[in-house]
Amino acid sequence: MFVFRTGASAVAACAALLFAPSAFSHISFETQQAPVGSSYKAVLQVPHGCQGSATVKLRIQIPEGVLGVKPQPKAGWDLKVVKGDYSKSYDLYGSKITSGVTEVEWTGGPLPDDFYDEFVFKGYLSSSLKPGTTLYFPVIQECEKGVDRWIDIPEGAEKAHGHGGHSDTPAPGLKLLPKAR
User: Fold this and answer.
1) pLDDT at position 131, please?
2) For the residues 12-17, what does the mean pLDDT come to?
3) Chain centre to alpha carbon of residue 70
4) Which residues lie closer than 8 Å to 176 by C-beta, 6 or more apart?
5) Cα angle for residues 67, 168, 17 (degrees, 5° grid)
6) pLDDT at 135 over 70
7) pTM of the complete model
8) Alpha-carbon distance 59 to 155, whole Å?
9) What CA–CA distance (Å, rounded) separates 164 from 84?
């Protein structure tokens, strides 16, 4: 059943429909919040290519405090990880660690612009991360023709975490919740 609206309500409803696609036009996480001190299954949603061109590479930067990262292999794609040192040591399941995965890269496909896919990795969110902040994961999406850089972090936010904002090319964000009891 359709409901007809008049005045400001109609304008607001039309504006919401007109601008809704932009909310879904960037790479984002399926689950956009998780508690610190817990495992997190990151499902990166890729809704399109680069201005009509198929995606052939996806690189995601893993921020400090996300530990024990294990990406999921994907049929038709090569998988590579880059490892590096952390700025401090962390406790991961009773062991002290000082380095780990800092970037994950899937190359292959291609994923045509008309199709949608997901890229997955698991990691542990250190209990030293601050609840109430957002952790950002910059992504570079390379296509047969062109590149989209989903790397913008809201102004005033620290490199790894801060608070919300608006951008045309936002880095996927994960809102950190208090540690589960």
Assistant:
1) 97
2) 38
3) 15
4) 33, 34, 35, 36, 125, 129, 130, 131, 132, 133, 134, 135, 161
5) 115
6) yes
7) 0.80
8) 23
9) 28
Share of the chain above pLDDT 70, in %: 79
Please choose, from the candidates 140, 124, 131, the residue with its C-alpha nearest in 3D space to the C-alpha of residue 163: 131
Residue 177 has pLDDT above 60, yes or no: yes
3-state helix, strand, coil in the chain (%, to 5): 10, 50, 40
Spatial contact of 55 and 141, defined as CB atoms under 8 Å apart: yes
Task: Give the count of alpha carbons within 13 A of 73, CB side only.
Answer: 3
Residue 164, pLDDT > 50, answer: no
Of 144, 137, 132, residue with least CA distance to 178: 132
Query: In which band, very low, low, confident or very high, does the pLDDT at 22 lie, cut at 50, 70 and 90?
Result: very low
CA-CA distance, 138 to 51, in Å (whole number)? Answer: 19
DSSP state of 58: E
Closest by CA position to 27, among listed 177, 176, 168: 168
Bond from prior residue into 47 cis (ω within 30 degrees of 0): no
**pLDDT number for residue 146:** 95
Q: How many residues does the chain have?
A: 181
Q: How far apart are CA 26 and CA 149, in angstroms?
A: 10
